[in-house]
Every structure is written in structure tokens, then in C-alpha cells.
Amino acid sequence: MISFTENLGNIKNKGIFSLITGKRDQVLLDIITIPGGKFLMGSPDGEGYDDEKPQHEVTIQPFYMGKYPITQAQWEKVASLPKVNIDLNSKPSYFKGENLPVEQVSWLEAQEFCAKLTKATGKLYRLPSESEWEYACRAKTTTQYHFGDNITADLVNHDRKYGKTTEVGKFSPNAFGL
Fold it and tell me: CA-CA distance, 32 to 116, in Å (whole number)?
């Protein structure tokens, strides 16, 4: 399902060790093609918040998305690149671990991450729109979650089962491979 892999170890400031591959200069970012399609965006009556209503049909064009949340190793590598608009803290996360998702970053910092990655690779990187995000997460299902309507700690990091973030790839992917 991977459309391409960006080796962040090949861009300036080499030397970060990745738990994903166990090799120096291998900080990999797997990118997946999300196929286009239509879906009902928003929450049905009786669920969600008022700003998620009414449900409405949205058409999504194909786009690319990272297979996993951005890891701390990936964030650190890209944060070390020259500034485009703002400085980035290379280690912002509360829970530490190279293969844990980066957290404690703002939307502006995520935008800077994309700008740095775009400048370094020559490929356009951007955050997904709200509708692209919801479509990608649902993966053409009609249930509340891609795995059904019931959420459990066996399917996602939920209800304090783990007490911290979990390594990317720990849980089963959705139908798009995310």
C-alpha cells in the first residue's frame, strides 16, 4: 500500500538513529496514496457536537498521506533543517521515544515541519484538510470508526490502558493502510 518512502536520513544533518529500520541515516517516512471518493462528513443526529452537523456529502480527490503519525525521530530530523518561518523545538514531546508519535506541537509548528520538508525534498508536503483527514480515517466505512462503532483499548490507545502514547504501527491499519 505504500506509494513511496522518503528517507529523511538522506537530507542534510545525517546521523539520527531510527527504531523503524535500526540503521543509521534511515529515518523513513512512508507515504500512502489515498484514493478519491465521496463520503458523509460530520456526525449524525445523536452523536458528536453541533459544529459537526449537519452531515453532508463531500467529494475527495486522491491525495497522499503519511502511513503513520510523525514520529519523534522524523520530527527531530526535519526540525534540524534550516528555518523557513519559525524555529522548531527538536524534542517537544512529553512522552519520549524515537518511534513514538511527536506530540505537544501546534498547528503553526506542523506547518513549519511541512515547509521544511517541502524545501528539503522538492516535493509538496502539507497538512490534510479536515475533510481529507476524516475521509482517510474512515477509509470508506460508514461506521463511527474504521473498525466499527465500538471503541476499545484493544483497538486503539484508549482509556489509559497504556498510560502514554504508543509506538506507531502498534495497532491494525485501516482499509487505506493508515
Answer: 20
